[in-house]
Each structure stands twice: as structure tokens, then as C-alpha cells.
Write a structure and sequence with these properties.
By secondary structure, the protein is an alpha+beta fold. The chain has six helices and five strands, in the order ββαββαβαααα. The protein has a five-stranded mixed β-sheet with strand order 2-1-5-3-4, with helices on both faces.
Length: about 150
């Protein structure tokens, strides 16, 4: 039995400790916003926050996530500046990777309200968007940062 705190709620899940966190989130907790992409932590589709840091849930066992605060895309408030910027800038094309992209961006902006282009590229360099919406993603990041600065978040 594994105990997890996901989106502010405590869960007990009867699963082996070596199961990837992604599958517990999706299959046991039924939070399907976090996506399976590559299964080896390379693409970023499965990105969640663990204690505020962007992490690849496919590459982390539930044992390693126990005792930590996990936030999925469902736990990020609907009025979060990144989600609002994504809508305003029409960032999404197919949308499959976007929950992971949004979680990566939210983590980036939680540490820097005005990231320079190099910092943005560094944070987003290993997040794969199969549709290639990278220019729109960058525009969305700049818009979200602007909203956060304006709102003092």
C-alpha cells in the first residue's frame, strides 16, 4: 500500500512501489490529464510537479513520490496565468502534449517571472511537441509571464 498526496488530496493505493507514478495517476486515481508519451522521461508529456518542481512521472516510481506533494494538470487552477495565456494565444494544436508543456511552463515561471529567451529554451528544450507549435509555446510563455507580473503572482 502506497500513500500519495495528489492535488492536495491524500490517497492510499494498493500497488507495487516500483510502478511508475504516471500509471498510478492515470489508472488508479483516474486523473487522465497527465499523458503517456515516450515512457522513458524524454518527451515531457507526463510532466507533473513534485514538491513544486517539474518532474517526468513516467520515470519516477510511486515509492520515490511518497511523502511529497504531487500536482497534476488537474490540480493547476483553471484561472492559472499559464492556462489563461494558452487560451489567449491559441497555443494548442492537437493538444496531446500540452498538459505536460503547461506544467513545465508553470514550474519555470514559478521561479522566474521574466525569463530571458535562453532560460525559456533551457527549460523547454527537452519538451517535445509533435505538432511543432514551439513559436506559439514561446508566445504563450511570454504572455503568461506578463500576466503573472501584472497580477503580482
Amino acid at each position: 500500500m502506497v500513500s500519495l498526496n495528489v492535488n492536495g488530496k491524500n490517497y492510499k493505493v494498493d500497488v507495487s512501489e516500483d510502478v511508475p507514478l504516471l500509471w498510478v495517476i492515470r489508472d488508479y486515481l483516474k486523473l487522465t490529464g497527465t499523458k503517456f508519451g515516450c515512457g522513458i522521461g524524454e518527451c515531457g508529456s507526463c510532466t507533473v510537479h513534485i514538491d513544486g518542481k517539474a518532474e517526468r512521472s513516467c520515470a519516477i516510481s510511486v515509492k520515490d513520490a511518497t511523502g511529497k506533494k504531487i500536482t497534476t494538470i488537474e490540480g493547476l487552477p483553471e484561472n492559472h496565468p499559464v492556462k489563461r495565456a494558452w487560451i489567449q494565444e491559441q497555443v494548442v494544436q492537437c493538444g496531446y502534449c500540452q498538459p505536460g508543456v503547461i506544467m513545465q511552463v508553470a514550474a519555470l515561471l514559478s521561479g522566474s517571472r521574466n525569463p530571458d529567451p535562453e532560460k525559456i529554451i533551457g527549460a523547454m528544450d527537452d519538451v517535445i511537441c509533435r505538432c511543432g507549435t514551439y513559436p506559439r509555446i514561446k508566445k504563450g510563455i511570454r504572455k503568461a509571464a506578463q500576466l503573472m507580473r501584472k497580477e503580482g503572482k
